[in-house]
Amino acid sequence: MPFIKSFSLHTDKTNPFPFNIPAVKFAKDISLSPDVTIFIGDNGSGKSTLLESIAYKLNIPLIGGHIDRHASFEAAAMLQPYLELEWKRETKKGFFFRAEDFSDFVNAIDRLQQSRAAGLSDLRGEVPDAIIEQMSSSMNYLLQESRKLYGDNMQAYSHGEAYLTILQTRIKDKGIYMLDEPEAALSPLKQLALMSFIMEVLKDNNAQFIIATHSPILMGLPGALLYEIQEEGMEQVAYKETSHYRITKTFLDNPEYYLRHM
């Protein structure tokens, strides 16, 4: 059972950004009643801005940061006076995950580890290595949290494995989970693994997923409600009627047709 029943953006403004993007102009009485709602659309259609705006309203955590302190949520902050959520049942639990935040987070951990190692290098040989590692860990909250949540060495994973591990660690039941283009770091096989994991979480009927994606694989999540955002509107659409599915299928069926026109 979902937590948020629907949302709307009530504004007559059409300029400047973000009021001029299709997702903002046409976000009126958008149902989120299924456990999974997926927004699709071309680059610039505003699907990510929608997710960011809802996440900002909920004030749910990011990986390694807080929404209200993040400069990239300026558009979401501008839309807050116009955003209305209709609840089916309220919760304060959830998580917002963007592909770029994942890369920044893992890189930040790596930089911190290197910085701490350099700063404590003078103690090598005089203090036991185990003590140095404890000192290094205690010097930074982000490093402590990453180790507690994901293990000692996130860099030992491949990019896609680390990405999937973080999602599987942070997503539990009784929460709203918002994923912005989660396919960015995932192979088709790992996308199927993510789909399987989401389906397993949903068995307890205590989680809600709101996803923006370009992936025809993730769009195929069973029972998902799909909204396609275009310049002229935002409409519910069947999976096989999405432009992403049709273009991908026709290309795979006959790539020569596309290639000879390029």
Summarize the structure.
The chain contains 10 helices and 9 strands. With 262 residues, the protein is α/β, with parallel strands linked by helices.
Query: For the largest beta sheet, what order do the strands appear in spatially?
Result: 5-6-7-3-8-9
SS class: alpha/beta
Highest CATH level, the class of the domain at 4-98 and 173-259: Alpha Beta
The helix content is: 40-55%
Mean pLDDT metric: 83
Give me the count of strands: 9
The helix/strand series, from N terminus to C terminus, equals: EHEEHHEEHHHHEHEEEHH
Tell me about the largest β-sheet: 6 strands, mixed
Task: From the 3D structure, determine the CATH topology of the domain at 4-98 and 173-259.
Answer: Rossmann fold
What's the shape? globular
Low-confidence stretches: none
